Amino acid sequence: MFVGGDSIKGEDPNYSDQVSGFLKKLDQESLIVTNMGLEERIRGCAALTNCESFDHALAGFLSQEPWPDDVQLFQPYETEQILLPDNANCLAVQTFLKMCDLKYVVEYRTNAEEMSPSGRVPFIKCGACLISDFEPITSFVSNKGISLSAHLDEVQKADMRAFMSLVNTVLGNAENYLTWVDDETYSKITKPRYGSVHPFPLNHWLCFSKRRTVLKKLSALGWANKSLESVYEEVEKGCSALSDRLEKSRFFFGEQPTELDALVFGHMYTILTTPLPNNRLASTIRGYPNIVDHCKIIEKQLFDCYVIELSCIFEHYIIWGRIERYYEESGFDYYDP
Asked: What is the pTM of this model?
């Protein structure tokens, strides 16, 4: 049985302790026979703990299991399909897993969105669990006793969560705006790439449907009616706040990376390395040298020393060297990092 990301995300932090305690109690009272399967054990535990659902109890039990060697991370194809917002999210999750030194294998699927329990990418398959999105995945890993922020105090953890919300709210919405609202980017980049893996007329219908969904979400958040200039202003403010927090440190909270560093790197690096008809978004980030240096440090430590491993556009090009060659070939304006 697979557990969706929403179940994991909404899990009571006490469920794991309850599940463990009641399994021990059941064993002590000989209520579990030796041939009783895992599902029956969890169902019995769920009944005793008054868990809301079997999913919650199973999630709590499985979160205590060691990290397996066959974890799979599912995402769209990088070279021809993935778009800026999804690429940023996928890179953030991969960076987090690498920072935690957890093994995983990337699996590319044209229908990764439809396979995901939340309809968003990336998602991971870890044993019997399916977990999607950055925060549910970090929570799931944390339940296994692995955390990048364990060394922080409560005030620092609150600050970290606030800045993570800032990244998702500002950079995430800006990426979706440029990808789906800005007409030039939509016609030249989004529409051809999003529909490239599907036959006609399905490619047009899926792109139209996705755009409608994203516009509805952005409207609810007050972003759909913004001008392009106001979007760039929001990004400028967000980068300024992140730059002030980072200052001259290697990472946002000292010498050790946290979940915030993984999230920021995923978004900043993707924006810097994705050519768009208008590269003002990348230019804005380049106006903050400490953020660019932060990206270089993490890339050098985790992704083979300045060789682009995950960028959907720049495969086979070195980031601060031959990247100019791609711009010349593509016809986009070159930016000098």
From this structure: 0.77
